[in-house]
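This follows on from our talk about sequence and fold. Please put the record directly below this note.
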Amino acid sequence: MAVEAEPTNPDPAATPLTFFGNEVRVERERWGIKREALASEAACGYSLVAKVEAGARLPQMSFARACDRLFPGSEGRFERLYPLALRYAFPGWFRRYLELEWKASSLRMFHPQLMPGLVQTERYARAVLRTDRPSNLESLVTGRIERQQILERESDPARLWLVLNQAALTNQVGGRDVMREQLEHLLALANTPRHRVQIVKDEGNHHGYASPFGILSFPDDEDVVHVDGFPRGYVLAEPDDVQKATDAYDLLMAMAASPDASADLISSILKGYT
């Protein structure tokens, strides 16, 4: 039987992710707590604890909260460190956007072909991210799902207004079971009072917007725009750019079906997978 190699411990100051992992190891050893005990508290495997301590895997927020419960005197330290570690599971060019997304009070997003990361299920996200053959696939999947906490946090959860082309509902990603689960999740969001989901129906005429983009709003700052693209996205903060994006989004909302009609359309397409 093959035995998985123990991850090596890198320089703890190399990145916030390695710093987070090293702090977990230091506190665990300080209090004489075995990895098995932390794994049990965090409802994960022993090998994941080892990889987190080595800075080789991004854990879920629930792991950070388990550390705070298990290590005396933590007082929420690991939960406070987690957003910084989360950003370093992503490429450098994406980290500035993550800082903004974490602070946003509302997001208006458009995607023509796929579900955006903020609404993807774990299996859908894995299928999308796998296409690039990344070496850190599991950390990327975890990071994408953990980003969604901004929509569910106890204090001031962000509001989401999502416009999708109908193609995003019918482009099959990861197989029928994955699509059924994803459409069920999208329908739940569409039926959540603080969120809005609108679908631009495929009626033969293209509206001309091909690039995914989002507009982030903040309680005490100006809006910014994030444009998704290949090989990387970018953030725009110039007032003229933000205004053009706002005008484009307003037009897309006008073209799209109403929230209630959009929920009916999602339900109709979902029936084809059930």
